[in-house]
Amino acid sequence: MSTNSSGSIRIALDAMGGDDAPRIVVNGAAIAQVRYPQAEFIFVGDETKIQPLVDKHKSLKGRAKIVHTTERVLPDDKPGVVLRSGRQTSMRLAINQVHEGAAEAIVSAGNTGALMAMAKFVLKTLPGIDRPAIVTFFPTLKGETVMLDLGANTECAPENLVDFAVMGALFANTVLGIENPRIGLLNVGSEETKGHEEIRIAAQELRALELPGNFIGYVEGDDITNGSVDVVVTDGFTGNVALKTAEGTAKMYTEFLKRTFKSSWLARVGYIFANHAFKKLRKRLDPRTYNGAMLIGLRGVCVKSHGGTDAIGFANAIGVAYDLVKYKFNDKMSQRVQLMHEKLSALPPEIKTAAEPVVAA
Amino acid sequence: MSTNSSGSIRIALDAMGGDDAPRIVVNGAAIAQVRYPQAEFIFVGDETKIQPLVDKHKSLKGRAKIVHTTERVLPDDKPGVVLRSGRQTSMRLAINQVHEGAAEAIVSAGNTGALMAMAKFVLKTLPGIDRPAIVTFFPTLKGETVMLDLGANTECAPENLVDFAVMGALFANTVLGIENPRIGLLNVGSEETKGHEEIRIAAQELRALELPGNFIGYVEGDDITNGSVDVVVTDGFTGNVALKTAEGTAKMYTEFLKRTFKSSWLARVGYIFANHAFKKLRKRLDPRTYNGAMLIGLRGVCVKSHGGTDAIGFANAIGVAYDLVKYKFNDKMSQRVQLMHEKLSALPPEIKTAAEPVVAA
Q1: Which residues of B touch A195 (CB under 8 A)?
Q2: Which residues of chain B have a CB within 8 Å of the CB of A267?
Q3: What is the dihedral of CA A77, A79, A82, A88, to 10 degrees?
Q4: Tens digit of pLDDT for each residue in B18-36?
């Protein structure tokens, strides 16, 4: 399930997912096609809308196929409902392309919950992986950090967190090119005895296993952005809250900054001088650069783009999918996770039990 | 346990807690004394160090007492150890002042875990309150938001979350002057069926109870900073991660901003023009303004200052303690919580059971 015999990498696109679909999807694919000449696209959605857009791009000529359907998943559709009655939606048919071997990856900017539910149902998990997770990367003071799970699993057993550590390290390796990623387990303090039992057991197991990557122990919320680790491992509830809190805080700062530069004539003049420098900062923090969360752990590459992104952002999400296929991410991951499970089962039982927390009063 | 007969409000200060103690503690008290002429202080710590500092401030004359001890809690001391062997520390003796009725409040910039453990042990919880929580407030796009619990309780039952909602609403009322605070329960989506079981049950209970404040349902991480609610309710694990993630993101932005203004001569010139406007922004976001997290739910007011704060920040933490005593926060809270528990016990049992989540796949 990596590249096909012709050397091309075939990516199925949910052409109807996202705020400005199918425009951003087709235009994004056209940008990605120039960057990755080996890419081929299967657009799934309303042919009457997609074909005219495809025809505008020379780069897509002979590299694009359309699978027609008029149904689509709406942003507020409930995952459970979509799963039962959304078999003809563009999202579902795009996922099917991967399952049927017509494509190696699927990218969608549609409803996250629906994508997760349908991808899990259709593609199933990789051998040895119990739970898929959502993973992405974002800017820090020192570079980039990978975090998972961002919302696929509300509750996690210690073994799930250990899986996530292995998966996240390989993701940092493949997408960010970090040789020996430093892995941290998100907690509320660095002491051995802090946090939920699952976390304490996972920490013991991660210390005992000799994994690729470097497990450095517990990290706290502020470590997500200070660059002290390359991979932050947490359950899907905490990860989702942390990601959205960081996004919200960033948005608040950006808004305060705008207001400050508009607050007086002097400040406006200041902005004219500093404008060039701020352009660089905006580029550094451009959310489009960090577009593309992967639903990791499935038989097939499944990437979720932000719903509100533009064509450049969508092209970046395609880029994530492309790299994961090209570097045989899933094959490697399956091997690594299975090896890890063998090591895990050989560990003495006391490591799989939580140490008693020191209870204060 | 509000003001004493003389009308003054007596506050015990852990004079040895904080990075730059006792200097910031005494200087902070001197600033607070001018703001709140009714305040009286009991400094607990090394008299030989405190007395010369106190003597420097006219405002403290006749309003300061010293309780001498040479022992102190260190930043890395474990709560459990401090609880057993720290009975003569400045922190413990300052808490004792409240327990013994010599003071109405205690403020410390020392070790949070130790303060929590000792304050719980010495002061005990208010009638009807099962678990104390850590609560504070911080800036949002629209004003300020209160959040709790920030780390006192790693795991919470639905009833604890309901208690926190009542406590947080009254805190927003007392400290921020918000008449009818909007309360949100932190979750990973706005759907009924999302999140942990505890949260789903707490939401049902909060909807069924007619509480002071306005329960608006679930909120997500980005609602913490966008000002859509006045009170964010969550367990201590999630709250601690969210708070530290927000702090870390804010720090990263501030650092990027500094680097941007230093990155070129033009940008430096721009900064000169915009400097005045940025001063206002810095003031708006000044962490010293938001200094003072309360350990809420105890018999006595216990406020934690940031360890790294300066005298102005410490004075603000004293201000939080002062207001809480002055407006009889604990008396009101105890009444409200007991009333709420009566209503809660009258609710039909189906509200105290989680609705079945819609499981996808």
Answers
A1: 154, 237
A2: 273-274, 276-278
A3: 100
A4: 999 999 999 999 999 999 9
Instruction: Say how far apart CA A222 and CA B290 lie, in whole Å.
Output: 18
Residue B350 falls inside a structural domain: no
Residues A282 and A134 both lie in one domain: yes
Q: Tell me if chain B has a CB within 8 Å of the CB of A279.
A: no
The neighbour count for residue A258, using CB atoms within 10 Å, is: 11
Would you give the DSSP letter of residue A338? H
Rounded distance, CA A245 to CA A265, Å?
33
- φ, ψ of residue A264 to 5 degrees: the values are -155, 165
The dihedrals phi and psi of A109, each to the nearest 5 degrees, come to: -105, 15
Pair (A164, A148) in one structural domain:
yes
What b/e sequence results for B20-39 when a residue is b if at least 16 CB atoms lie within 10 Å of its CB, and e otherwise?
ebbbbbbbbbbbbbeebeeb
CATH number of the domain at B100, please.
3.40.718.10
Closest alpha carbon within chain B to A186: B241
Phi, psi at A219, each rounded to 5°:
-125, 165
- Are A20 and A121 within one domain? yes
**What parts of chain A have a pLDDT lower than 70?**
1-6, 190-193, 355-361
Instruction: Please report whether residue B61 resides in a domain.
Output: yes
Q: Which residues contact A53 (CB under 8 A, 6 or more apart)?
A: A22, A23, A26, A27
State chain B's mean pLDDT as an integer.
Answer: 90
